[in-house]
Each structure stands twice: as structure tokens, then as C-alpha cells.
Amino acid sequence: MINEAEIRSALFIWLKQKSAVNGGVFTRDELLSGFKYQGRVITLVGPSGIWTPKGFNIPISISTTSSGGYDDDVGEDTIISYRYRGNDPNQHDNVGLREAFRARIPLVYFQSIKPGKYFASWPVYIVDDRPADLLVRAVPDPVYAMANTNLVVNENAAYDTSESGQNIRRYVTALTRQRLHQTAFREFVLDAYNRQCTMCKLRHPELLDAAHITPDSDPYGAPVIQNGLSLCKIHHAAYDQQIIGISPDYDVRVRTDILSEIDGPMLKHGLQELEGNKIVLPSRRADYPDQNRLALRFEKFLKAS
Fold this sequence. Notes:
Blueprint: H1 4-22, E1 25-27, H2 28-33, E2 35-37, E3 40-42, E4 50-51, E5 61-63, E6 73-74, E7 80-83, H3 92-103, E8 107-114, E9 117-130, E10 135-140, H4 142-146, H5 155-158, H6 163-192, E11 208-212, E12 228-232, H7 233-240, E13 244-246, E14 252-254, H8 256-259, H9 265-270, H10 291-304
Parallel strand pairs: 5-8
Antiparallel strand pairs: 1-9, 2-3, 4-5, 6-7, 7-10, 8-9, 9-10, 11-12, 13-14
């Protein structure tokens, strides 16, 4: 007999370990392949957005799709609204969600950020079932979400209706939203640049960042592809520290004092030899970095030089 509680706990550990490498982004193929628990493959998504693997009594995940007709969202009150499947409250998948609500069983929420790619949030608890509205409402477990260790989930925190409990959930939801937006921005920017550094052409995604041209703290720092650059971590840091600049004409410039330094091969090949190069541009012209943003950022670089 399947021990669903043990499998869910193992899944949460697996998700955390994978997210440390992939930034919390999972492809649909990965989720369809699932993870192994004691020799058994547990699939994480399926044809339905509400997924109950073979042998399970209660769903293991809920998911959205980029092109789906369902209206799921995280509201300002920290609640995830998730639509039933179809219009029958007694449909099998919907009954499964209701049982997860009744028994306080944690789920994983896979939120689509682009076709075939999902951002994972876990554990998520259903705290409200609304058959008349054909939806359930769910919240992340704030204790687990804020912890740095693989602790046991605590559904009591998710169901805490006190003012302090609600404030904690609001904080966790804000962090989750921020991570989702940052993750989505990174995926779109890296894909636009064919998942390589625009300066050195490094093709290891785990070493690439989506750098903002105009910082996200600025009113014009929108998380759009045209405000992003795919940079390896060293060139991202160098760009942020005004060691390297990019002109509105897409030329790479290296700060004068850095050009005159004498050091090892990393300085020479990693920084100095970039002087005068053109950056690698996205495949689609519509995704090219915005020249006005580049110009404003380049002015700051020239002042630092």
C-alpha cells in the first residue's frame, strides 16, 4: 500500500534539491517523468490540471497552463484561487481537492510561466472549498516557505487565521510573487539570447543571470525582455559595478583603469579583451535591448570611468 504522506515529504525534499539547481523552473517533460521513491516513479502532472498519480487517493499537484481557459490567480489577500475541473463539483478531480481540504493534505502548485515551463510552490494547503463558485482557495505553508532546512510541514500555520498568521502569509506571498516574477523574467531573457552570455557566449544556464539594464527598483525597470541582458555571473557582476558598459550601439566597453591593470589570464581574457566587441543580440529583433535604456545606463558607466 502506498504511504502518500511519506511520498509527499520526499517530493518536497526532491523539489528543494532540484530548485537549488534550476531556480525553481521545471519543464513539463520533467514533471511528466516525475521522481523516484523507493523504486517507484511518481508522476507530478498529467492531462488534468488537478493531478492524482496512480495509486493515490488525493491529488499531488495542481497546475496552470499558459494557454488554458482557467482563471487561477494569487489574490491580494494571499489566497490562491484555483478553478474546479469543468462545471460539476462532484467530478472525480474536484472531489479529490475537497478531500485534500478536509484532510489538510499538502499539494504542489505548478504555475506556468511560459509554454512547457512551470514555477513550483510547495507545500500548498487548500483552506476553502467553494462548490457554488466552482473553485477552491489555497495558501502556501509559511513556516516551510521561510525555513532553510527540510523541516516537517506544518499545516497549522497555513490555517492560522490570527492577525499575525495573516501577516506572515502576506509576507510569504509577496516573496513568492517576487520569486515568480524574477524566475519568469530570467526564463524569457535567457531564451531570447539562446541561453548564452551576451558578452562571452558561455552556454551553461546554471551560470547565467538575467541582468536588468534599468534596475527593477527604478520606475522604468520593467521586467521585460528589452530591459534584460543574458550575462554570466562574472559579467553580470562587472556590469553592475560599472567595470563593463554597453553602449546604445551594442559595443562593449571596459573601464579605463581596468584596461591598464596587469593581472592574471582571467582579467585579460575575461574582461580586457571584451573592449570594443559587439554583444550577441537576441534572435528576434523585437527582443533587442532597448537603446534608450542602454544609453542611460551607459552614461553612468562613463561617469564611473
